[in-house]
Amino acid sequence: MWRVTFKRLSRTGVGALVVHAGTLAALAFQTVPVATSNTPPAPVSSSTLQAETLAARRVERTLLGAAKKRPDSSLAQQQLGEFYVHQDRLKEGIFYLERAQRLDPKNYNTGYDLSLAYLKSGDTSKAAAELHSRIKQTETAELRSLLAEAEEKVGDYQGAAVDYHRAAELEPSEDNIFDLASFLLRHPHYEGFLDRSLAFFRYGVQQYPRSAKLTVGLGVVLYARGNYDDAVETLCAAVDLDPTDPRPFQFLGKVSKASAPLIPEVRSRLEKFASLYPNNGPAVYYYAMSLWQRSEGESPADFVKIEALLEKAISVDPNSYEEHFQLGVLYQDQQRYPEAIRELTRTISLRPDFNQAHYRLVLLYGRTHQKQLADEQLAILKQLKQEDAEAESAEDKSGNTAAKQIAAKPH
């Protein structure tokens, strides 16, 4: 399982990774809660905030008093520094942690907290130096994982891969396996990166069969590899682990049309999602789209219901361009051209670079004999396509240069 090297590097086309930045970023869903409603959360009362502030000040006074009373106590300095780091008062935290380190250079907790503070403050070089020093004394998974994070931030992907791998080897926890597998998925610098990511996600799911994030990760990799039926089936399994958890549904909704045979399975889960969270815009939107998609032998879609659901999703979140676009497509299919133009115009006002909306507006203005507007949209569409081609060319050149630099590093 763990006999893997990361020395062979090659430029693998990012285009091969079907799931792009938005979905990959969502892999961090285990630490970023997804709102079940677009209604803003109730504001925290001023009395609660005041109580929390007063409590923090009391703790600070106690720790500060101890640090001043015992200037030669590394523990007192470390505890105060740790408090400041947790409060995101990094400059003060670093000051006291550095003082604690001078008093007790080999203290593990001080070294970890100081490395974390350096990393959070943006000083990755100091963080990496401190971590390397600590690892020489005592190698632990959390030190390796933090070092990998520092290396990833500065673009040392080879070093990050090795250290994420080492962290998972030292402690094959759910988080460490996920970090390694998702790192490989985010960075297609390694030959066979999808195969390796798939292997680690599969191993993680075997070890932690109740882990939603590992199961979702497995589904994302399968989707990126083009194994659409397996991907959708895996994401359905992730949803079934906890049908009340809205986070895995986000992924299932994005890939719902990838597997025609499983459309009814997906739809039944998205229907439940929408019923659980009727004020969640994506929940309603994904259910609407699943109703629109039909598998072989199914009865025609209920377009009245789909229209109502899309309008509901828009009322929840008027500034989400996808809902406006799909409603415009629905109107266009029904030859309700003025309404389609309205929704597609709203779409490009929310996302001006959305090619598909401009293309449909070209057709719609042509159908409604508005030649000048059609020509304007056509000119915008040509400009966007040219910009896309130039950006893709620049990305390819940059990627090839980066790959050569990484491959040239001594192994």
Shape: elongated
Please indicate the percent range of residues in DSSP E strands (runs of 2 or more): under 5%
Element-level helix/strand string = HHHHHHHHHHHHHHHHHHHH
**Number of separate strands:** 0
Q: Which stretches are low in confidence, meaning pLDDT under 50 for 5 or more residues running? A: 2-26, 401-411
Secondary structure: helix percent? over 70%
Number of DSSP helical runs: 20
Task: Specify the biggest β-sheet.
Answer: none
Report on this model:
The chain is elongated. The chain is mainly α and 411 residues long. The protein is built from 20 helices and no strands.
In short:
This protein is mainly alpha-helical and 411 residues long. 71% of the residues lie in helices and 0% in strands.
